[in-house]
């Protein structure tokens, strides 16, 4: 189907092809990415046809630009994609309903909800204050499961309104749960970030409670589902990571760690979580080192625990990289300043750093965050050596057991992660030529672009 579309409207797909070749080159060896990047960037910045394919390509290239550290370009191209999508009417059920092919109609629905997702992530990540789609009336229905889409067996879709009305009476697609989480973020989390450090305690509790409630409603079988290669449901696991990340984001913000606060700031400025004057004087940081900031710690350990499943770093979206950095901060805060310099906690921090390091083989932004985390740990190790060694066991033995329970140390039966096989430049050229010939299947937004 895509081949026929390209044959009939080759100019309409020229930007899509440029984007695919550029992004594909990021995951390959022995290819000069610069020329492919320049061509895709030039096209993204110039005049483009107003089509759903252009919206998809703009969304993908803005995520890739973020992964390479071009935040300004990411924002500009996302806004361009959003305006084009609303001009086309992707938010309306009638847009997808007008398409005779059910797979293409599903692709249209996914395009709108992917914009909804990434716009929300950007709003929280960069503290933009507001996101247009939060208050846009959308009637387009929710996407189906990934395996249904890949098999081109599209079920009757449901709307977000139907999802909310029927609640836990049945199971829904991972996309449906993800869209509901983003709705919660827009209604309860973003307003807290806008208020600042003086947010109402009841509003804070309500936002956290809604996220925890969302986590509890997820069907257990969906968390345990793996594909033939052993990988988890990437849509669901991105949603889980976002949920834990939102809990952490709220706590960091309320304790003064704003949008510009990074790991080097934690090392330079001291602890984020300070003792509360509301606690009895008998309670001390020494005897209860994580009485303060415990919600942030829970979120961080739960997020790190996701990587005990087969969650390949190359498929973890660059949009979530800064969320992983924020997950490291409560752990580093405990290790550097909370008196919990134990091997177990250090291992959890290193796990997060190594996940980012692996992702950094493709995305410079992840590599930079990994280096910051490792540098913070190395600095702490140097201090420990000067002071006579690392703490082991002792009064923090209970926390060792708690951390091990939340995040088991043994992550894999087999060592390492599976990566996309490298391609030579000849293979890339052959692949590009095949894409321009007739072939089955519509343009799809794949899981790694979550």
Helix content: 55-70%
Please compute the radius of gyration using only Cα atoms: 23 Å
Beta-strand segment tally: 0
Taken as a percent bin, the fraction of beta residues is: under 5%
Largest sheet: none
Domain module tally = 1
Mean pLDDT score = 82
Task: Output the helix-strand order.
Answer: HHHHHHHHHHHHHHHHHHHH
> Multimeric state of these chains?
single chain
Tell me, what's the shape? Answer: globular
**Helix/strand/pairing category:** mainly alpha
Give the end-to-end Cα distance, rounded to a whole number of Å.
24 Å
Q: Please report the number of helical segments.
A: 20
Poorly predicted residue ranges: 390-425, 431-450
GO molecular function: DNA binding; zinc ion binding
Organism: Cylindrodendrum hubeiense
Pfam families: Fungal_trans (PF04082)
Protein name: Xylanolytic transcriptional activator regulatory domain-containing protein
């Amino acid at each position: 189907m895509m081949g026929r579309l390209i044959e009939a409207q080759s100019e309409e797909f020229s930007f899509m092809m440029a984007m695919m070749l550029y992004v594909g080159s990021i995951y390959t060896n022995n290819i000069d990415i610069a020329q492919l990047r320049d061509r895709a960037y030039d096209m993204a910045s110039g005049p483009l046809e107003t089509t759903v394919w252009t919206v998809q390509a703009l969304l993908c290239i803005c995520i890739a630009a973020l992964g390479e550290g071009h935040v300004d370009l990411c924002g500009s191209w996302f806004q361009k994609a959003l305006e084009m999508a609303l001009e086309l009417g992707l938010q309306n059920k009638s847009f997808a309903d007008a398409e005779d092919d059910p797979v293409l109609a599903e692709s249209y629905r996914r395009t709108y909800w992917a914009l909804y997702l990434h716009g929300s992530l950007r709003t929280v990540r960069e503290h933009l204050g507001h996101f247009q789609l939060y208050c846009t009336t959308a009637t387009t229905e929710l996407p189906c499961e990934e395996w249904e889409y890949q098999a081109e067996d599209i079920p009757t879709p449901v709307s977000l309104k139907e999802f909310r009305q029927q609640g836990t009476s049945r199971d829904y697609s991972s996309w449906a749960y993800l869209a509901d989480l983003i709705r919660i973020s827009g209604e309860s989390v973003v307003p807290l970030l806008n208020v600042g450090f003086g947010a109402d305690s009841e509003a804070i509790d309500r936002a956290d409670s809604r996220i925890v409630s969302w986590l509890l409603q997820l069907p257990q079988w969906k968390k345990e589902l793996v594909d033939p290669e052993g990988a988890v449901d990437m849509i669901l696991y991105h949603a889980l990571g976002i949920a834990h990340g939102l809990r952490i984001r709220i706590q960091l913000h309320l304790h003064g760690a704003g949008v510009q606060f990074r790991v080097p700031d934690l090392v330079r400025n001291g602890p984020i979580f300070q003792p509360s004057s509301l606690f009895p004087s008998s309670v001390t940081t020494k005897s209860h080192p994580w009485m303060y900031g415990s919600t942030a710690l829970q979120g961080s350990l739960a997020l790190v625990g996701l990587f005990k499943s087969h969650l390949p770093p190359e498929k973890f979206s660059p949009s979530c990289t800064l969320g992983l950095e924020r997950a490291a901060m409560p752990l580093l805060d405990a290790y550097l300043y909370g008196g919990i310099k134990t091997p177990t906690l250090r291992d959890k921090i290193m796990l997060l750093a190594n996940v980012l390091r692996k992702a950094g083989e493709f995305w410079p932004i992840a590599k930079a965050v990994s280096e910051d985390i490792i540098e913070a740990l190395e600095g702490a190790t140097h201090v420990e050596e000067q002071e006579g060694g690392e703490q082991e066991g002792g009064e923090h033995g209970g926390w060792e057991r708690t951390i091990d329970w939340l995040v088991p140390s043994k992550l894999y039966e087999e060592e390492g992660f599976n990566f996309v096989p490298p391609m030579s430049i000849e293979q890339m050229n052959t692949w590009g030529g095949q894409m321009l010939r007739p072939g089955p299947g519509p343009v799809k937004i794949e899981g790694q672009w979550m």
